[in-house]
Amino acid sequence: RTSAPRKSAKPKVPATPLAPANYVSHYAVGDGISHPMFGNGTVTAIDENKLTIEFPESVTKQIIDGYVRRRQL
After folding, report:
1. Looking at residue 24, what is its pLDDT?
2. What is the pLDDT of residues 20-37, one digit of tens each?
3. C-beta separation of 33 from 51 below 8 A
4. What is the pLDDT of residues 33-63, one digit of tens each?
5. Any residues with CB less than 8 A from the CB of 29 and at least 6 apart, and which?
6. CA distance 13 to 16
């Protein structure tokens, strides 16, 4: 007797970490940050855990706040 392979009952994990309800980022607009790939930038907007960051050469990226570090002055 052959049977079809069983499908996994595990829930799918989202590709990016979700922010909990009422999440408040510990970054603020104007904060200097450092990203391992894009370098130093400045936070220009915040949407829950997503930071809009302007990097040199007018490059703007949206990055989850857990992937950056506050730049030391």
Report:
1. 80
2. 667 788 999 999 999 999
3. yes
4. 999 999 999 999 999 899 999 999 889 999 9
5. 43, 44, 45, 46
6. 9
| CA distance linking residue 50 with residue 31, whole number of Å | 14
Question: What is the length of the chain?
Answer: 73
Residue 43 structure tokens: 């936070």
- For 5, the token pair is 């392979």
Q: Which letter, b or e, does each residue of 18-45 get, where b requires 16 or more Cβ atoms within 10 Å of its Cβ?
A: ebeeeeebebeeebebebeebeebbbee
Which residue has tokens 């309800």? 21
Give first-to-last CA distance, the chain, whole Å.
69
DSSP summary character for residue 28 = -
Looking at residue 28, its amino acid is A
